[in-house]
Each structure stands twice: as C-alpha cells, then as structure tokens.
Amino acid sequence: MINLYGLEIKKLEKLMVEEGQKPYRATQLYTWIYEKKATNFDEMSDISLKFRNVLKEKYCLDLPTVSYVQNSADGTIKLLLKMKDGMQVETVLMRYNYGCAACVSSQVGCNIGCSFCSSGLLGKKRDLLVEEMVGQILVLNDILSKEGRGERVSHVVVMGTGEPFDNYDNVMDFIRIINNQKGLSIGARHITVSTSGIVEGIKKYAREGLQTNLAISLHASNDEKRTKLMKINKVYPLKDLMEAVKEYEQIAQRRVTYEYLLIQGVNDTLEDARELVELIKDTKGYVNLIPYNETNLNDYKRSSNNRVHAFLDYLTKNHITSTIRKEFGSDIDAACGQLKAKVENKT
After folding, report:
1. Taking the CB of residue 30, how many other CB atoms lie within 10 A of it?
2. Residues of the chain with pLDDT under 50
3. What is the pTM of this model?
4. pLDDT tens-digit map of 16-59
5. How much is the pLDDT for 242?
C-alpha cells in the first residue's frame, strides 16, 4: 500500500489524476491528514464514500511506533522509533525559547564512519523512506499535543543518524512536505540539513531553489586531522569541500553553518582555531562550536570549558561569527546513536 505521508503534493496530484480524480483532491487530502490530523479515511467526510473505499484499498496512513522513550529534566525527549520492517531510528525533540526543534534521522545506521559518532557503529542498514521521516515529526507532534501545552514542532534539523545527501531524493521530498503550507507548514528558514561534506550533494542542493539552511560537519581545520575523524575526507578533501561551499553560497545566496566538535587534545588548540580562520575566512559561514558529548564507545574526551571559550574568543577576534551550541539531554543518552546502541547492546 502507498503511504500518503510519503507523497510530496505534486506526486500526490499525479496519483489522484491517475485515480480519475481532479488534482485538487491532493490538497484536500493534505488538509485532512496534516491540518485536521485525520488518522483514517473514514474521517474524511467531504470525500465520497466510493473514493474513500478506494483510498482504504490502495493507501494507508501508517506511522512509526515508539519502542523507547527518554525524558530529560530540561524537557528534551529522545525516542527510539520502530519502522514497519522492525528497523529502529532515533528522533530527538529539543525545546528552545523560540520553539520546539526536532532532530530527524535520514537513514537506519550510517556509512560515513566518523570515529567520534555512535551512529555508524553498525553501518548503514538502509535509507529511510519519506513517510518514515515525516512520521518522526508527526509522532513528536502527537506527544506534544498530549502534553497539552499548545506546542508543536516548529524547527527541524536533519542531523540525526545518517547522511542526508546519501538519501538525497527522499530528503528533498521530506523537506517539501514539511514546508508546504498545506503540509506541516514549517518555514524554510526553520529547516536545516546537515552534511558530512558530500560535494555533489552540496552543489545539487544549491540548485533546489529552497530557502532552507545548510550545515557542514567540519570538525577539523586540516586534511590530516579531518581524515582521522571523518573517513569521508579521503574522498572529499577540504579543498574540494570549500569550493563546493563557495558555489553553494553564490547560487543559493545562503550562508552555511560550520559544525565543529571540540575534542580534548585532538582539534581544540589555538593553532586549530588559527587554521580554521584561514580555511573559512573567504566564505560567509559561521561556526557552531559543540563540546563533545562523551560516550563509552570511544576514548575521546570533551574539551575543558576554558579551552572551548579560548577557541571561541580567537574566532570572534578574527571576525568569524561563532557560537557555542546549547547542550540538551545531558542526563539521558544524548549523543546521536547512543540510545539505539545502548538498547541494541542490551538486546
């Protein structure tokens, strides 16, 4: 059966025409499932009984199921969600003063194999389908609705398990569904896609005509260190990556965010900061410094607060806009992939 949550509206219009319906039927269905939050076709009272029966025969509205929940004292919610084939992925809700942000996974597992990350331990199992990514948001919205505080997911970062540009077409359809006014109506400027640096994906993304945000997982300022942290640097070294970033800025007219994980004794010295300034000074991007979230799955340690702030001060004094990412879920398995690894190890 075809899951309606996986259909970008133009594809749904085409399907409705093939079903002998008018194109407006797609907008009507979007209204029911996203605005009115219908969970079955019998609720759709302005659609004929005959066509509702067709919908029940050929289409479905299936969502992932929650198999594990962690609640943090700071309001962060981390879910382990099970898909129809039994595969599980993590999804996180973080509460900011400007709204609720969902960190969405794009794959089951990951092939990038970054040495600091729990997500790639078991390797990539498969890409997530569009409906499985949309489903992550809908499950979180359902949890928020039951809390009765009038909250919903207002910001989305495709920054969970997986490399989004390794599942490019599905991620693009996901973005168009959640951005569509008849869909989840999440503003483009509130949607961020994070890549480990797939050059072809960055160049293609620049031409999508979307006003969403792009984040680059950088984490080192020279090829030697970045290759040790991120194997993908062997395929896409920093020279090629930075050329792609400049092309993206020129075409999309959007600045990028450089994600920079600070690991004690690995990439957190003032020399690293100096190299970082040299690397990115000719771009319009800004730096998001991330103190490492320690895990028992490797030997990396987080940088001291003094070193983090010294790194930030150096960047700022050299005219690089920088921030330190606010930490969430410090009392739960907050690092990406950590909850799934923990649960599967117990199993």
Report:
1. 21
2. 347
3. 0.93
4. 999 999 999 999 999 999 999 999 999 999 999 999 999 999 99
5. 98
| CA atoms of 158 and 180, how far apart (whole Å) | 17
Q: What is the 3-state secondary structure (H, E, C) of the chain?
A: CEEHHHCCHHHHHHHHHHCCCCCHHHHHHHHHHHHCCCCCHHHCCCCCHHHHHHHHHHEECCCCEEEEEEECCCCCEEEEEECCCCCEEEEEEEEECCEEEEECCCEECCCCCCCCCCCCCCCCCEECCHHHHHHHHHHHHHHHHHHCCCCCEEEEEECCCCCHHHHHHHHHHHHHHHHCCCCCCCCHHHEEEEECCCHHHHHHHHCCCCCCEEEEECCCCCHHHHHHHCHHHHCCCHHHHHHHHHHHHHHHCCCEEEEEEEECCCCCCHHHHHHHHHHHCCCCCEEEEEECCCCCCCCCCECCHHHHHHHHHHHHHCCCCEEECCCCCCCCCCCCCHHHHHHHHHC
pLDDT at position 341 is 56
Residue 7, CA atoms < 13 Å, CB-side half-sphere: 22
Residue with tokens 């919908």: 55
Task: Please give the positions annotated as active site.
Answer: 90, 336
Burial class (CB in 10 A: 0-12, 13-18, 19+), 269: middle
